[in-house]
Design brief:
alpha+beta; Cytochrome Bc1 Complex, Chain A, domain 1; 19% strand; six-stranded mixed beta sheet; 2 domains; 16 helices
C-alpha cells in the first residue's frame, strides 16, 4: 500500500492513498491540536469547536443544509477530538469526491460560529459529559490519565467540565482558531478509489484560502515523569461492577522499542487465547472483559490493562494480573517461540483487517504524518514486527513492569483505599 505526500502553494500538506479497486473514498481534515493545547479556563474548546463546525457554514448556514448535501450523495460524516489532534471526515462514493471536499472545507474553514448556536450547544455538551460520567467502562480511562498525568494538561478531560464549557464564548473560538487552524498544523488525507492528481486539484480548489500561521504558536507543557512509588486513584461510584486500569508508564510515539512493546502487549491480550484472557477470564472467571493497550503521546505513554470485575473479586483480579506481568519478567512464565509468533501474526492480521476500510486507511497514514518523523506503510510495519525477538520483548518487559512505576485507577463503590494500597505496594 503506497501513499503520496505533497504540499500545496499555501503550505498545506495533502496525503493521498490510492486504492483503485474501491468505489469509496474518505477525506479527512486533521488539525494538530486537542485538549492538551488549551488554557484551563476554556478546557474543552477543541471538542466544542468540533461540534460547532456542523452547525452552519458560509455556503450552508445551518446543520440541516449541510447534512442534506451529505445525505444526497449517500455519504457519512463525523468528527473526533483527542488530547492532541482533531479531525473531520466525509466518506462517500469516489465519484462524489468533489462534493465531499466542498462540504468538508466549508465546514472546517468557514464555520459561522453563531452565538445563539454556541449557547444552545452548551447544553448538548454538558449532557454528553454526564453520559460519559455514567459510563464507567469509558470513564475509567479519564480517571487513569488524571492519575498518571496529574498537574499536566494531559490529565484534562477532552470534553472539559460543565464550568469550563459554560464560560466559552464566540471570541474564544475565533482566537483559538487563529492559533491552531492554519496550514502549518493542518493536514488533508484522502484514501480510496482516487487519483492523486484529482485529489490534489480538489485540495487546491477548496483549501487554498487557508494561510500559514504568522503569530506566536501555542506550546503545550511537556510532561515529565517523576514517579518513584506506586500510585492509586479511586473514583467512588455506586455500581454493580468495578472498572479498573493497571498501568505502567513508557515512552512516546517515536520510541524505538514500540514494536517489541506491541508484541508484548499482544501476548497479554486482547486475543481469546492470550495470557490475560485465559488466566483472568477463562480459568478464574474474574472478569468478562480484560484487555491491555498502549497509549502514546509525543513525549510519553503508558501500557494499561483494563478489566471489568465482580465487586467481590477485585482484589484477586489485580493480584492475578500483576502476577502475570511480574512473573514474565522473573522467568516464572517465560515467553515461548510459538507464543511470540502467534502475537506477531495477531498484530499483522488485525492491522490488515482494519485497513480494508478507507476511513481507517486515511487515519492510519494521517496520524503518522502528524506526529512521526517517518510514515511507515503497513508492509514496512510488518517487517519491523517480524524482526522482533524474544530478547527484545524481555528487554521491554523488564523496563515496563517495575513495581515502583505501577499505577492503579478504579471506579466502584469503594471508600477505603488501604486494601488496594497494600496490594500494589
Amino acid at each position: 500500500m503506497n501513499y503520496k505526500l505533497r504540499r500545496l502553494k499555501n503550505g498545506l500538506r495533502v496525503l493521498t492513498v490510492p486504492m483503485r479497486s474501491l468505489e469509496s473514498a474518505t477525506v479527512i481534515v486533521w488539525v494538530k491540536t486537542g485538549s492538551r493545547f488549551e488554557e484551563k479556563k476554556i478546557n474543552g474548546i477543541s471538542h466544542f469547536l468540533e461540534h460547532m463546525v456542523f452547525k452552519g457554514s458560509k455556503k450552508r448556514p445551518s446543520a440541516k443544509a449541510t447534512s442534506e448535501v451529505v445525505d444526497s450523495i449517500g455519504g457519512e460524516f463525523n468528527a473526533a477530538t483527542s488530547k492532541d489532534w482533531t479531525n473531520f471526515y466525509i466518506k462517500a462514493r469516489a465519484g462524489n469526491l468533489d462534493t465531499a471536499f466542498d462540504v468538508l472545507s466549508d465546514m472546517v474553514v468557514n464555520p459561522l460560529l453563531k452565538s445563539d448556536e454556541i449557547e444552545r450547544e452548551k447544553g448538548t455538551i454538558v449532557q454528553e459529559i454526564a453520559m460519559y460520567e455514567d459510563t464507567p467502562m469509558t470513564k475509567i480511562g479519564d480517571v487513569f490519565e488524571e492519575l498518571v498525568f496529574s498537574g499536566n494538561p494531559l490529565s484534562w478531560d477532552v470534553s472539559g467540565d460543565e464550568k469550563s464549557v459554560r464560560t466559552i464564548v464566540r471570541n474564544d473560538f475565533l482566537r483559538y482558531r487563529d492559533i491552531h487552524y492554519h496550514t502549518g498544523s493542518m493536514l488533508v488525507t484522502v484514501a480510496g478509489g482516487v487519483i492523486e492528481k484529482e485529489a490534489l486539484g480538489l485540495a487546491e480548489k477548496y483549501f487554498s484560502s487557508l494561510s500559514p500561521f504568522k503569530g506566536e504558536s501555542f506550546k503545550s507543557r511537556e510532561f515529565q515523569d517523576v514517579q518513584t512509588k506506586p500510585r492509586l486513584k479511586i473514583k467512588t461510584k455506586k455500581a454493580e461492577q468495578a472498572h479498573l486500569i493497571l498501568g505502567f508508564m513508557t515512552e512516546g510515539r517515536n520510541y524505538g522499542g514500540r514494536f517489541p512493546q506491541g508484541v508484548l502487549s499482544a501476548i497479554f491480550g486482547p486475543g481469546m487465547s492470550s495470557r490475560l484472557f485465559i488466566e483472568v477470564r477463562e480459568r478464574r472467571g474474574l472478569a468478562y472483559s480484560v484487555r491491555p493497550s498502549l497509549e502514546r503521546y509525543d513525549e510519553t505513554g503508558y501500557f494499561g490493562t483494563y478489566a471489568g470485575v465482580d465487586l467481590k473479586k477485585v482484589d484477586e483480579a489485580i493480584k492475578v494480573t500483576l502476577d502475570q506481568f511480574y512473573g514474565l519478567v522473573a522467568g516464572k512464565y517465560p515467553v515461548k517461540s510459538a507464543e511470540i509468533k502467534k502475537a506477531k501474526e495477531f498484530i499483522k492480521g488485525h492491522v490488515a483487517l482494519s485497513l480494508e476500510d478507507t476511513n481507517a486507511v486515511a487515519g492510519f497514514f494521517g496520524e503518522q504524518e502528524l506526529f512521526l518523523p517517518q510514515v511507515l506503510t503497513p508492509e514496512e510495519i510488518f517487517k519491523k514486527i517480524d524482526a522482533v525477538t524474544i530478547d527484545d520483548v524481555m528487554t521491554e518487559a523488564k523496563k515496563l513492569f517495575v513495581p515502583s512505576k505501577l499505577n492503579l485507577a478504579i471506579i466502584g463503590p469503594f471508600k477505603d483505599s488501604e486494601k488496594f494500597s497494600k496490594i500494589i505496594t
